[in-house]
Amino acid sequence: MDSTSSRPSTGTVRRAGVLDGYRDLGVARGAIAVLRDVAEMAKGGITTSVVFTAAMGLWLAPGTLGPARAAIFLLATGALVGAANILNCWIEREVDGLMHRTRRRPLPAGRLDPAVALALAAGLAALALPTILMATNGLTALLGFAALATYVVAYTPLKRITPRALEVGGIPGAIPPLMGWAAATNSLAAPAWALFGIMYFWQLPHFIAIALWLKEDYARGGLQVLPVARGESTARRTMLVYTIGLFAVSLAPSALGITGLAYTATAVALGAVFVALVIVAVAERGSNGARRVFLYSLLYLPVLLSVLVLDAL
After folding, report:
1. Measured between alpha carbons, how far is 299 from 270 in angstroms, rounded to an integer?
2. pTM, to two decimals
3. Most exposed: 22, 148, 150, 156, by fewest CB within 10 Å?
């Protein structure tokens, strides 16, 4: 028997190699798609802004952490925030499927297995919290755990029950500056709480504006946001109260002497425009005013915090 008869032909080998290449390409594209979906659930923009506020607290604190430990702390904080966001997506996957703006997210769209998302979030949190503890101290790790627990265990389920979830949800979003301060000093002081207050009060009109703008979508998902549960008039008045509160608390860093005239002038100017936009939104009907408030809030916070950091130098 000819020994060459049992060998595959050159054409067969070539076709097999091409098929293997296509399979490898498909695997690579699938992995990239999964990573893209994970990044979407981790909400990269929100995570980046939260890490910035933690870095701001670290920078403004009188203590020092060291470049290496600071970098580890910030990376671990980002992982913790990403874990919280993924857990939020996992818990709300059915609600997200009912709402137009969220139904294309990875879990309601069926692009990612919920079990994979849950395991990934749990793994990230299990890695992030001990890393924060080792890089900083017990107080900082405790604050991180409190933020995660409040966001996932309290705020997320409360959204379906009561509009007071808004005030609860503001707490974890305002904790990162406290974490940064605690990381450097292993304590909390009045300036740290001023940063907490700014972050807390900023979130309230910001999210009420979103809820007014997208009221029908939130109602479709069964979420008890303020305009759905208490009506638009109540929501608009509440938004004005919280915006005035933000204006007041934004001046606390000046009163505490950690910033100078440049920050004070910026806080007054930005706050006055914010209050004026909300007053207009209260007076008019429809969602245009709320949409303007939402868009301005996206500009307000980074400008205010950037000037705060630069003026504190």
Report:
1. 9
2. 0.87
3. 22
